[in-house]
UniProtKB/TrEMBL annotation:
Signal peptide: 1-27
Name this polypeptide is given: ABC transporter substrate-binding protein
Keyword entries, A-Z: Signal, Transport
Protein source organism: Microbacterium betulae
Organism domain of life: Bacteria
Pfam family, one: SBP_bac_5
GO biological process: peptide transport
Amino acid sequence: MSSRTRRLRAAASLALAAAVLAGCASAGPSDAGGGEKEGGTLVYLDAELTSNTQLQSSGTWQDSAYVTNITDRLIFRDPDTGELQPYIASAWTVSDDGLSYTFDIVDGVTYSDGTPLDAASVRRNLEWQARGDAAGGIPANNWFPEVASVESDDDAQTVTVTLAEPYAPFLNVLSFWRTSLVADATIEASIEEQSQITGVIGSGPFVVESEKYGEEIVLAKREGYDWAPPSLAHQGEAYLDEIVIIPVTEDSVRLGSLTSGEADVIRYVQPSEEEALQEAGIDVVGVQGAGNANVWDVRQSAPFLDDVNVRRALQHGIDRQQIIDDLYTENWEVATSTVTPTTFGYVDLSDELAYDPDESNRLLDEAGWTERDSDGIRLKDGEPLRIVTYVDVYDSTAKPLFQLVQWQLRQIGIDLEIKETDYANYTTVLEDTTVGLRRNGWPEADAWVRQTVNYHSAFSDAFLLAEPDTTLDGLYDAQAAATDDARRAEIVGEIQRYVVDQAYALPIIDDTQVFGVQPTVHDFRTTYEARPWFYDTWTETT
């Protein structure tokens, strides 16, 4: 361990206790630079604590990023093009009816505990994902379709999955971190063990060397790793010897550690911090992953939001361009649909989302909100038009964004009441069905799977409709069953138009993950969903 790493670990521990410190897609910092690529330690400061790494039930950004670096997947999603490419599956075929998928498994792959990642292991992983483990409290992966059978041919090293009905996103799902392949020892472990990063035994380019919860996770280079996606120029072992991951929740501490040279990469750079970092010689890397935009779900269980005119007034009462101009940088963009522009089936709905306060006022008048109190808030039957929301704890830029939207909505007579809570209680407070707006949206392997899980009445029903919307449910079902990409794109276009027209969700901005990266760090990469992936990364050693 280098003296620099020891110093940072000590400093970070002190910062976490006292909150003080003295002192890519493939886009990223320049790849130019001299020096030997092999070896070295990279210190990565994350803004959040690890929460749960159990694959079927986890979901936080930081946990998914760590899992990505210690595991492999059947299919590789090219970060630049979105193309599905071979990985642990060297090839695959899909039957004409969309029900049967056969995968050829690469020979010679092993997990970090030495057990083989062969056809039998892939079969067990897929069965486990599809069905879970009820006795062990492990849920099925809710991204998975209904699987009729999974069979492996150990001699031919093939695995065949037969679905109960066509499921268009299936290959995309198999490229996602949540379907990472793990050893039998992980599958057989208790849910408590799987929920800790040390309990996830993968075949990836790094292995978990140690974890001190709340202090650090150390990932070490996997000796003998030689099964990276064949489309990559880099083959063989990772360049870095180790990655030291330290959770530092205080923005000022992460910034101080980076500018002082004690850290190599940090996540969650605030827009207001970007210019100063660049002036200090730090590379600011903004990565926009494909998937769902930053939207606010409109929960119709809350007062007044079952009225489509009120919802549409909200849609037109938000000036998205002002949000970008006042609060963000060129790394961020206005949302023009419920998904980002690089997402499959994206439709530009800029006109439908145009800022139009006159239209908002007309809609609210039509809905009967014609009176105003002394503060300009609209009234109906003496009751103010007040909508409650909570600042999203998962978005480092959320608070000023919420406050600006609050000011914008006040101009049309809507009182947006903003409440705050902490990370531990955020999910609990949102169980209150009178909370009207909830921030949602993440980059994903398939945005339409995530939306189905979030919004279909048979799943999370995040819009909290009084009755299921059979039109919306039918569209989500139809896109999943489409066996033709052109037809699926047509259907997901209909979904976007319908959700925006009904103002079920309010698209705000296209989220960006912003990293600060030392100029001595080269080939910093991210996955298709913008999660950091350190396989190619190397540092200049001194």
